[in-house]
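User: What would this chain look like folded?
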Amino acid sequence: MEQRANAIWVIVLSLLVAYLLAVVPFPDWAMDYRPEWVAMALIYWAMALPHRVGIGSAWFAGLFIDILEGSLLGLNAMSLAIVVYITLSLHQRLRMFSALQQSAMVLALVGLHMLLVHWIRIGTGQSEPRSLLFLLGALSSAFIWPWIFLALRYLRRAFDVR
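Assistant: Here's the prediction, encoded as structure tokens.
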């Protein structure tokens, strides 16, 4: 029973750290380069522990982001649920991929998340169409993925999260 409680707390605390990193102020010129910390944490946990982190977890994590950002309620929730659904359907393959291949998948998944959020904001009139430079955040997420993966795997093994 104690191991189960550890698992929940380690996952929740890693998501809280991701939320903190997501709201850290960046200079205006660097906003497009901000990695998607919460999406990467959810991708890792859905890949490593698909029986613990699923579509419902992604939905609630996305709702919390919507509340933090003050954006349209359900916007990030829907987008992250789709990303985690794809991750869950590919989790066994993702585990076998090299770090470079996993980074490419993170680029695609985070890019999908960012595109969905951008398109919905345009559709609801919250944003204007702009260049695809906002996808640089997906590129920076893919670049730092190997370190995020190693850090979260170390945390999972150190606290015996199963």
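The chain has a mean pLDDT of 93. If you want, I can go into more detail on any region.
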